């Protein structure tokens, strides 16, 4: 069965070929951003990574005509730990220009949310001002995953490694990834199930100075408390914040108290 991830990755190969033919845009942003890991590790409150998300394959159009800089300022003012910017165009209607616009507006960490399969995408992310990139374990063979991980680290970037089951968690741990995200959305069926975070948390080595981030399907304080109790340090939230008429209130309601796990 061809999954949405297969389709996205096939399109991404074409985009990378185009990128390789052109030249990388000039580096726009030279500010040093604080470390996302430091903001999350042993935080007493659940932290929020808030996403700029115009559209998605599962939900279609979410927020047409938004201005990324405005949305980003609202997130930062509300106390977001990091802003995630989708840069994939065909499926999510994001761009590297969105990322650059956000980078020139806020000084908190910025995550480039894309389907990275080639180092040139990491160069683009860095040049547009990202301080963190996403690598999706399900999208990459281990050797490729490792080489992209090392390339990003060599460029001074932090890496969020996304997993969806315990086999993938083992692969993330082989890289010695410190920031590990579990996607509650199954990319084959689009079903969201917060107990995915519980599953991963059950075998997550919290005592090893790593943080677990619960991604997708977080709508309210009840959801946030659930994943905080499983052990998540942060949530990655797109749709519910994009649709909210009161970003400050919506975001702050997710910053629930959590129990700090120390070894
Ligand atoms: O809009 P949501 O359900 O709050 O989800 C946000 C984020 O987790 C989701 O956009 C996401 C998680 N992993 C990804 C990988 C690629 C693209 C998108 C994603």
Automatic annotation (TrEMBL):
Every Indole-3-glycerol phosphate synthase domain range: 5-254
Give the originating organism.
Psychrobacillus psychrotolerans
EC number(s) given by UniProt:
4.1.1.48
- Specify the pathway: Amino-acid biosynthesis; L-tryptophan biosynthesis; L-tryptophan from chorismate: step 4/5
Q: Which family does the UniProt entry place this protein in?
A: Belongs to the TrpC family.
Q: Which reaction does it catalyse?
A: 1-(2-carboxyphenylamino)-1-deoxy-D-ribulose 5-phosphate + H(+) = (1S,2R)-1-C-(indol-3-yl)glycerol 3-phosphate + CO2 + H2O
Q: Which InterPro entries match?
A: Aldolase_TIM, Indole-3-glycerol_P_synth, Indole-3-glycerol_P_synth_dom, Indole-3-GlycerolPSynthase_CS, RibuloseP-bd_barrel
What is this protein's record name? Indole-3-glycerol phosphate synthase
Q: What is the lineage of its organism?
A: Bacteria, Bacillati, Bacillota, Bacilli, Bacillales
| Gene that produces this protein | trpC
Q: Does the keyword Lyase apply?
A: yes
Q: Which PROSITE patterns match?
A: IGPS
- Top-level lineage group: Bacteria
GO biological process, any: L-tryptophan biosynthetic process
Q: Which UniProt keywords apply?
A: Amino-acid biosynthesis, Aromatic amino acid biosynthesis, Decarboxylase, Lyase, Tryptophan biosynthesis
Q: Name one GO molecular function term.
A: phosphoribosylanthranilate isomerase activity
């Amino acid at each position: 069965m061809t999954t949405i991830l297969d389709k996205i990755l096939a399109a991404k190969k074409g985009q990378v070929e185009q990128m390789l033919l052109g030249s990388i845009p000039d580096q726009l942003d030279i500010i040093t951003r604080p470390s996302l890991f430091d903001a999350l590790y042993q935080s007493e409150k659940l932290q929020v990574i808030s996403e700029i998300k115009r559209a998605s394959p599962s939900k279609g159009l979410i927020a047409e005509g938004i201005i990324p800089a405005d949305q980003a300022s609202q997130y930062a003012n509300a106390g977001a730990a990091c802003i995630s910017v989708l840069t994939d165009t065909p499926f999510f209607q994001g761009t590297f220009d969105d990322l650059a616009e956000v980078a020139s507006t806020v000084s908190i960490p910025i995550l480039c949310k894309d389907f990275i399969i080639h180092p040139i995408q990491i160069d683009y992310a860095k040049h547009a001002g990202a301080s963190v990139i996403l690598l999706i374990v399900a999208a990459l063979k281990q050797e490729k995953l490792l080489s992209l991980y090392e390339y990003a680290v060599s460029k001074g970037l932090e890496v969020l490694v996304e997993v969806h089951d315990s086999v993938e968690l083992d692969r993330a741990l082989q890289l010695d990834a410190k920031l590990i995200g579990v996607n509650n959305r199954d990319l084959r069926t689009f079903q969201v199930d917060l107990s995915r975070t519980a599953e991963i948390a059950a075998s997550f080595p919290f005592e090893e100075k790593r943080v677990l981030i619960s991604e997708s399907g977080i709508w309210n304080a009840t959801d946030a408390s659930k994943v905080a109790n499983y052990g998540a340090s942060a949530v990655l939230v797109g749709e519910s914040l994009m649709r909210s008429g009161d970003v400050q209130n919506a975001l702050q309601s997710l910053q629930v108290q959590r129990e700090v796990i120390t070894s």
